[in-house]
Amino acid sequence: MDREEGGEGGLMIENMKIAIVGAGETSVLAAKTFSRVYPVIVFDTDHSKKSMFDENGIAFTDQADKLANADIFLLTGSKSLIYSLDVLSEQCKIVGQYMKKGSVIIFEAPVYPGTTEQVCIPLLEQHSGFVVEKEFFVGYVPSAWHSSGEQRKMGGMCKVIAGQSNPVTNYLADLFAPIHDGGLYKAKAISIAEAAQVLEIAQKEVNIALLNEVALTLNQQGIDMQDVLETASKKRGFIKFEPNLLGEDTISVQGAEQYWCRAEKKGRQVAQRIIKNLIQNEVVIHQSRITVLGISAGKGKSGTPEAGVLELVKELQEYGMEVQVADSKLDFEKVECAGGIMLTKQEELLPGDSVILAVPHEEYRKAGWKLIERLLERDEGYVFDVKSILGRNEKPEKVTLWRI
């Protein structure tokens, strides 16, 4: 396969057009990165996702026939638990219907080893009528899209690439070289790259799960977890992870449902700790109003609510509290209800007894205690800073701060 020279079904790198199939947070980062060098269009059947690409100047379509002009297809994954093999299969069906001879299909979603070659390629062949390695080509590039600032912070992270054959892998190297300065690593096989991504996810989730348990235990003892992490980071060999009590509660690897156990949710436990703390301070729960700031950790305006935050809110409501929820990142005109939770515009939030800072959006970091004080009656009350972003030294005298 000599992709530089073209030929029947061939494609010269400088002339290619890239279609990113599936809209999500990783899709925005991928599109922004690719568009620095190549023409890019993003496809998703959900038209409501268009806004997060419009605000970044990226072409978006919900019309599948627009994919017919693409030469390369990048099928992105999602951190959402609703992303499954059904969705991946549907993406393969759509791409198969509109791809042309010589197309390159690149998968990046976390999948169980073997999924790309045993599930995705047969679907592409079925719906396109083409033969893999003769009329189209397939690669796997584990998702790792970061901003340039994040890449510098991580020391120029190496990007893993894998193709069905050495020529495909080399072609992927030529594709990614102009947009990734952290170096490329050519995996020996697609299944090896898939397994490496699963291992990376497992390591991260296991470490975060461990720190979640440690954080809750230390909190019971009155020990600040952030102080412990700061101290431990001075130790040689310490690998820094942070708790994520209200984040995703499952290792999301497509095709691996029977291999991975569902991790215990922490939102309910955090809610119960908050209720216990308020009762110990003689707050009448069923007469109390509490404000939750942040429900989605996504960077776009239509982000998926965090499972742990949803559980936290529902648990507080079951105890009879009046819970008002706001999120500075969500476009209120398009999101009136998130995961069954009604949202309130930030300027319409009423003062209450307590505030939970659940997701550390940059707006909340900048506003700091000024925002929190406005949401407390008589400038006093209880603040639960789950991600420990509020400065303890600036805490108002009448406010009681609880953080992990």
TrEMBL record:
Alphabetical list of InterPro entries matching this protein: NAD(P)-bd_dom_sf, UDP-Glc/GDP-Man, UDP-Glc/GDP-Man_DH_C, UDP-Glc/GDP-Man_DH_C_sf, UDP_ManNAc/GlcNAc_DH
SMART domains, per database record: UDPG_MGDP_dh_C
Pfam families the UniProt entry points to: UDPG_MGDP_dh_C
Superkingdom, taxonomy of origin: Bacteria
Domain called UDP-glucose/GDP-mannose dehydrogenase C-terminal: residue spans: 291-392
Similarity remark: Belongs to the UDP-glucose/GDP-mannose dehydrogenase family.
Protein name stated in the entry: UDP binding domain-containing protein
Organism annotation: Planococcus dechangensis
Species lineage: Bacteria, Bacillati, Bacillota, Bacilli, Bacillales
